Amino acid sequence: MNSDSPLAAYAATDEASRGRRYPEPAPTLRSEFQRDRDRIIHSTAFRRLVYKTQVFVNHEGDLYRTRLTHSIEVAQIARTIARELRLNETLTEAICLAHDLGHTPFGHAGQDALNECMRTYGGFEHNLQSLRVVDELEERYAAFPGLNLTFETREGILKHCSVNSARQLGELGERFIQRLQPSLEAQIANLSDEIAYNNHDLDDGLRAGIISIDELTEVPLFRAQHDVVMATYPEVSGRRLIHEIVRRMINYVVTDLIETTSAMIAEAAPESVDDVRAGGGPLVLFSDRVAAEHQELKSYLRDHVYRHYRVLRMTSKARTVVRSLFEAFFARIELLPTEHHEAAIDMETQSGEAGRARAVADYIAGMTDRYAITEYERMFDPAQRS
Ligand code: MG
Fold this sequence. Notes:
Elements: H1 32-41, H2 44-48, H3 67-84, H4 89-98, H5 107-117, H6 126-137, H7 151-157, H8 163-167, H9 174-178, H10 184-208, H11 213-216, H12 220-232, H13 238-268, H14 273-278, H15 288-306, H16 309-331, H17 338-365, H18 369-380
The structure holds magnesium ion (MG).
């Protein structure tokens, strides 16, 4: 409806941007947020996402989602929502494409294992690591470390963080201390992430054969669309049935999100991004009913997919790989490849053991699934080359 209308007064714009950490001349051919998006796509961390697990380890099969396809699915859902609400579509896209850049290999199992290893050294949160990737770790510019993205993109990447971590983040951490909201574009990216993974994990679970269409009819969100599809196309089955249902499920929750959010915005009547930030709560929301249905789907996936023995076996192996690598490298940083060894020496000089641990965590978090497995073999299998 609104797709080509001008941006709303409360949308993020170049003019209202809080800018970059290292000032740069304005881009000539693009907007500031287009520049952010392009920097993200050209980053090394973005390319690594193709070999990082979402739920199913990459080498289990070629057709499962990876962090890369997940990020692209999140971005396309979020862009539709942002555009319809006359918000900044490009900023939304940039946030979505960057949101998982700091993810470890092996999905949540990898993140949990690394967080445990880092417990006494400040912990490991993948949101914070995504920020660390774009602020510090990417090496692409002579003039500054990282990608030097705008405040707005960085704000969106940092979905949540502890108050402790927030204190060390200056301007960007303020909102967690003062309990402010992020931009609407960031709020959309956040919920689009949930919409994407709920639906694609269901699809991947079906593909893996660990859940079935029959069992899924227990889940109201699934059943409602299943019944409509069966009534309209009684003969359809297999992949076409699954995709027809999942597509309609996404459409159902996205439509609800747009309607609910429009009503929330109309009621709060923000006049600027700062009004959005100062609001008492998020404005991008599902209706209560759809939020509850979404929650039921999430619980179902947790019990039947994420805790399925085949998935648990993968996560158990992942934990072993991450933990073993961390312990070995932390004990003897000279076992790290030269560049990481040097970083570990520098970081230890600056901040002691916590610095050394952070350097090891950076190395491990940057690994793809298969690189981590190979590195594990090189470290612990005497028959492997080092
Ligand atoms: Mg995600």
